[in-house]
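Working notes for the structural subgroup meeting. M.R. asked for a predicted model of this chain before we commit to crystallization trials. I am recording the input and output together here so anyone reviewing the notebook later can reproduce the run.

Input as submitted:
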Amino acid sequence: MSITQSDFDIFIKEEKVFSDLIKPLTLSPAPINWTREIKAINSKNIYLLDFYRGSFELSRYTYNKRFRQSIILIRYDSGGRHTNPDGVSFDGPHVHIYKEGFNDKFAYPISELSINNNFSMEEVLNKLLQFCNVTKRPSIEVPMF
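Returned structure, recorded in token form:
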């Protein structure tokens, strides 16, 4: 299943809130994997935010925002290599943003979300939620190392 580019624009811009504002968003310890529901304020649209951090490379993690279970609207990857269908490659942090006809196959520089390489996991998450217009969020539990 896919959506149009104008649908994507509507989905990103509509105001959203987390369904559960009490349970904090936990970013540690690794390995960790969770999914949280986000609801649109003025429609019946429901989104899912995933977080994954493995135990092999502790510096690598992924945030993934989905619509209708399987449509990835945006994904942040803290590392790795990605090559777009047009041949443009990225080493290190990059963000996948939905593109009609390609779904999440295109990656872009993290600067598209006003993120730089020195941002913490918490700062990246906040920028991602800001980009997606999520206005009410639970607290974030940050790793203490």
